[in-house]
């Protein structure tokens, strides 16, 4: 692995301090990504070190002030100022939850971990793929060794119960499995080229066997957790990918015979996988998808009084209550973790009773949770962060710095992430914290690399002119 770290030759390193910070930080980042599901305490213990080496390298850079002009630093400053308004209000409204408000604010602030992660990845695809590989291997190992036993898992599958697989709950497990499926699909051609170049036959087939096993585990986890939001997200991006491929073929952009055959094999493989899934899980999928169709019909009728407090029904009633809360405090919200006392004291007695009895103390929607907790201004901050990172990724891809498969993965992940967050509050929990930081950092790293290389050229040019004038 260490041979994959191009530390001494990074063009934006100006000193040994920066090189050592990069080495320490990158190794720490890999451990951070690998252990987040295996041991959260170990993973979190690396957060201060990752941030520290980034700040030290930032201070050691000749154009440190210019680096601070990064738009994410500006958004971080605005976010901190907003908390000086939001947190005191929340503490006054819910004094018993004062510590929890600070904790949730700290969790939400970790979205700015995109900055050090982007700097450490340095726009090097090899580093990014190592990070994603370790992240997914850690997820799989966590599911295998920290989740239900094999006998319990078999019983759950037979009885139609939903396993947690070592995650916070089955929704988080299902979404993480969906993210793995997206990545494994997008990077499959790259993996086949790499594994095909290996000299050792054992390594060649061993790595391909491992990749196949990862695909099987990811698809199985995606199915048995029965997370409808994750199912919907994957179906949507499959349709988008299919339309995209057909459009490219129709416009004549795919001229290589080899690529055309690869697409054909991909369609055949997808058809086989769907056939197997239908044969093994078809009845369970249909039962799960249509389990609450009557609830959806009641919602569409417009009369919420007839909507039962089922899985979907609870969400509908909670969202309706949330809209009232947002209207009451639209700008700064009620506080990052005010969703707990607000739901436990809901004016709707049935909503309150279910929240208390089943510990349903959040709104099952990241966007509504942000609007209730942090108001329109806090929500706008997350939209702005997504806009800055998305624009940077798009520009770096257009300039040729970001490979096509990375851009495809990031685009499909973003669509999937937008969909699943409509039905669960992932952003404030560790699933959202890690995926936002790590994948957001990967997306931003290419633009940061281009910016640093540009500053390095400017610094070299200025130094040359100074020497000539001297």
TrEMBL record:
<keyword id="KW-1133">Transmembrane helix</keyword>
<feature type="domain" description="O-antigen ligase-related">
    <location>
        <begin position="213"/>
        <end position="383"/>
    </location>
</feature>
<dbReference type="Pfam" id="PF04932">
    <property type="entry name" value="Wzy_C"/>
</dbReference>
<keyword id="KW-0472">Membrane</keyword>
<dbReference type="InterPro" id="IPR007016">
    <property type="entry name" value="O-antigen_ligase-rel_domated"/>
</dbReference>
<protein>
    <submittedName>
        <fullName>O-antigen ligase family protein</fullName>
    </submittedName>
</protein>
<keyword id="KW-0812">Transmembrane</keyword>
<dbReference type="InterPro" id="IPR051533">
    <property type="entry name" value="WaaL-like"/>
</dbReference>
<keyword id="KW-0436">Ligase</keyword>
<dbReference type="GO" id="GO:0016020">
    <property type="term" value="C:membrane"/>
</dbReference>
<dbReference type="GO" id="GO:0016874">
    <property type="term" value="F:ligase activity"/>
</dbReference>
